[in-house]
Design a protein that fits this description.
Blueprint: E1 11-12, E2 16-19, E3 24-27, E4 30-31, E5 36-37, E6 45-48, H1 51-70, H2 94-107, H3 116-128, H4 133-140, H5 145-152, H6 164-168, H7 170-173
Antiparallel strand pairs: 1-2, 2-3, 3-6, 4-5
Helix pairs in contact: 3-4, 4-5
Length: about 190
């Protein structure tokens, strides 16, 4: 759930504080059934986003401030995505977002998807782009790296295998001038 700005370089609301200069936002609360609660795993986390999204968020916030001033509510913005059909300043519910995704998928001729699938896509894309599983864990708010690797580990390719010898510098660490085996318990069978 993304909330919106107050002042200066830090854009802040109830659930999220956005730091445009650092290209990240702080998730401090989640929203469900017209209530704000602790986020996933009960921990505050920071999520990075691309610079292009910072510009879009700043433009959206600027527009919301202008609307608030025109309506006599002032220039303070608490939430970015307020559901206009609700009585009061409530963000869109999970159920409404799910329904919207179903309609969009149907209109595009795609199989219906859940909004949570977007998280899977995000994590998979990061790992396929060779981002650290520790970084992906932080982005998703998983409590342990095991959770991240168990769910998304199949997206981590074996590209690094080619450079294994160089990475371990085997020839420098364990010189082998005579070609004998370094595995002590190993004795090759002789052919008779």
């Amino acid at each position: 759930m993304i909330s919106a700005p107050t002042r200066g370089k830090k854009i802040q609301g109830k659930a999220v504080v956005i730091y445009p200069d650092h290209k990240k936002y702080r998730v401090a609360e989640s929203f469900k059934r017209k209530g704000f609660n602790k986020p996933k795993a009960g921990k505050i986390r920071f999520v990075d986003f691309p610079p292009s999204l910072v510009k879009e968020l700043e433009a959206c916030i600027s527009q919301l401030k202008k609307q608030g001033l025109k309506q006599g509510k002032g220039g303070h913005v608490d939430l970015l995505f307020i559901d206009p059909k609700e009585n009061g300043p409530w963000p869109y519910s999970q159920r409404k977002i799910q329904g919207l995704m179903r309609r969009v998928c149907k209109a595009a001729g795609l199989q219906s998807r859940n909004p949570h699938d977007l998280q899977h896509t995000y994590a998979s894309m990061l790992l396929m782009a060779h981002k650290s599983p520790a970084f992906v864990k932080k982005q998703l708010g998983h409590s342990t790296i095991d959770t991240t690797v168990d769910i998304y580990g199949h997206w981590i390719d074996e590209e690094g295998r080619d450079g294994l010898k160089d990475a371990l510098k085997i020839s420098e660490v364990v010189p082998n001038p005579d070609g004998k085996s370094h595995i002590i318990a190993y004795k090759p069978k002789r052919l008779q």
